[in-house]
Description:
This protein starts with 8 loop residues before the first strand and ends in a 5-residue tail after the last helix. It has 13 helices and 25 strands.
Amino acid sequence: MTHTHIPSTHDVAIAGAGPVGLFLACELALAGCTVLVLERAATPDSPFKQLPFGMRGLSSTSVEALDRRGLLDELEVPQRVADPHSRPPGPVARRQAGHFAGIPFHAEDIDAARWQRPPASTPTSLLAEMAELEAVLERRAGTLGVHIVRDTTVTGFDETAQGLVVHTTTGSIAAQWLVGCDGARSAVRRAAGIDFAGTEPEFTGCTALVDLAGAPLEPGRNVTERGMYFQSQPGYVMLQDFDGGAWHDSGEPVTRERLQQVLRKIAGIDVMVKHVHRATTWTDRARQAATYRKGRVLLVGDAAHIHSPLGGQGLNLGLGDALNLGWKLAATIRGAAPPGLLDTYHTERHPIGARVLDWSRAQVVLMRPAPAERALREIVASLVGTRDGSTYVAGRVWGIHTRIDVGCDHPLAGRSAPNFVSQNGATLATALRDGRGVLVDAGGDEALAAWAHAHRDQVHYMMSPNPPGVRAALVRPDGIVAWATDDAVDAAAFHAAAARWFV
Ligand SMILES: Cc1cc2nc3c(=O)[nH]c(=O)nc-3n(C[C@H](O)[C@H](O)[C@H](O)COP(=O)(O)OP(=O)(O)OC[C@H]3O[C@@H](n4cnc5c(N)ncnc54)[C@H](O)[C@@H]3O)c2cc1C
């Protein structure tokens, strides 16, 4: 059976209309590709994507990415997490800005001036509701002409001489490329035979909205000799039971009895669970796809990597993947990609994913309820509490230390670009909204202007009278500085650098 209400072939089929699949669809459509998104769920309104379950921390890189596509303003009053760039004057209470293994760090202790990139013009982190983020992305995808088909599960694919045939529960569809954004249990990854190796869990995490009675649970984060529980608001409880992931892996539903038993064990008091409104389990299993690309099939987001949600980085990692892949795949489809461009998706993003997996594993070690680990946690807590420690940890959690090897050793190269301002007051963030790159020039260099004119379908030319710290910079469509110089422009060096990214 084939679908009759949509065009019979697309440049790209995306499995999964989660936040990452939708963001990638927007990126590809912005760059002129035809995109079909196939989503298993019949409707987008999962209660686990709504408050309180659906609250997600967006880090600096994600906030910047949304701003650079004009999407940030569409999120309804995202809640600002403590931000070192926006301290109100006068004495303020210490504001927790995040945590490492449950050890808090505070905005007042972060010295943003030490980060090796200029501060972004957007907040370093925000809290957003998944459901709302997806709604904003789905709306944008609609305006860009993306087709989204729900109640349709991708089951596999075949390669043909013309491209791919993607098989689903409601028929088969032709596409040139298939991207698996279908989450941790990705059917695309399995059908492509891509290895997904890593480490097995140490604990089952459970997040539950419950009615409680009996001995009261303490508010906030409570580490005990048997695990950890966290009550952020009355009845909204998160716990970690170091059972090797057995509860989660058993597939057993979260019953009132089981939850009460585990809570009593961890808290050591006679708490009563009267009613479970909603609950879900998860683990610290950490795995990564061996390759993010196999021929015409690519993996993005949780389909490419899973890890515990400690420190909240999975969504940010996935949005970063999508931002990195979108313009490269689109250029490949248009025939406008330098050789090897698409393969830089794996070489750039796989190491970043591996670092996040290790960051989550390191936290699990410190959270083990054993004497040696408790002793180590005390030491790490004193280090995190220092100015150096808080600055380092915040930089890691918010993705500020992320640097890609782009073959240029200027300090800005490989990092997210500062928000350059043009001579007529336009910003880099605004220039990036149409998905093209930007060539920033402080001095009206003729070679740069001529190159930009010849590549105007791919790159904006921005005269910027006082770009912070540089004479000229080439910014990729994903906002990463591909090349920069402080000196007079060496045209040959610039052309060589630009040819890595644009044709
Ligand atoms: C308790 C918890 C708290 C978290 N907190 C944070 C946080 O604060 N910050 C953060 O960055 N991350 C956080 N995360 C992680 C984050 O939620 C995920 O990394 C993110 O949702 C991944 O997005 P995705 O689009 O890749 O996958 P998903 O959100 O899993 O979306 C995949 C989509 O694919 C669909 N699908 C699956 N299989 C198929 C198929 N075969 N065919 C078609 N469609 C299919 C699914 O229905 C789904 O809509 C948290 C996770 C948990 C569990």
